[in-house]
Known about the structure:
Blueprint: E1 8-9, H1 10-16, H2 22-30, E2 34-36, E3 39-40, E4 47-48, E5 55-57, E6 60-61, E7 69-74, E8 105-106, E9 115-121, H3 124-131, E10 139-145, H4 151-157, E11 162-163, E12 166-167, E13 172-177, E14 180-185, H5 192-198, E15 204-212, E16 215-216, E17 225-228, H6 230-233
Parallel strand pairs: 9-15
Antiparallel strand pairs: 1-4, 2-3, 2-5, 5-6, 7-9, 7-17, 8-9, 10-14, 10-15, 11-12, 13-14, 15-16
Amino acid sequence: MELIKETKRLEKYLVECGIGSRREIKKYVHEGRIKVNGEITLDERIHIDEKFHKVTFNDRKLEKKILRYYMLNKVSGYITAMKDTNGKKTVKDLLPSFLDTRGLSPIGRLDKDTEGLLIFTNDGNLSKMIASPDNNCSKVYYVELDREITDEDIINLQNNVKIDDYICKAAKVEKITSKSINLTITEGKYHQVKKMIKAMDNKVNYLKRIKVSKLELGDLKFGEIKEIKIEDII
């Protein structure tokens, strides 16, 4: 295929069109479901020019989105920021190099040692809606505890725990094992889950966010990013 100026890898373009993660895109290409100018291509590494090439998925024409939404399975050891003046590793370092990150920001934050679901977007309205405690947007965390959780602990967690000088909104607890729970909160205070568990004279040994609003982490691999739609989130 003839290369034209201002080209980009087909793989990058398909990610920007939101049809799936890089892993899924490679699968679609190898299955012959991607066509460039009407011809099936089996190589996601070829370069295209958006102005001159028509790209289809299952014979449907693709177009890049203006507002973009991505989900990342965050890895422990990265701070939730797009840059850090002290040279620490940030979640931006987990994003693929071909992804255009201009205007993208993570919604909310996950602690450096916390893993799981993190949403990136350039949609400021969505960021405010999810981050504001007034909107009661649910966030579900899988929590592994240092000691067994009691029935009394569960009742207390669900009834306005006090952390520092703040009274938390009512939470929801799903007991998984004697030392693990799913904890649903509607706020995002600094170290909130860890402080709530500490108020029960317990300690968080492992923390992973598995759901935000109606968006679930699912089987997304560690460090993998996937483009999604706003309808997947709210």
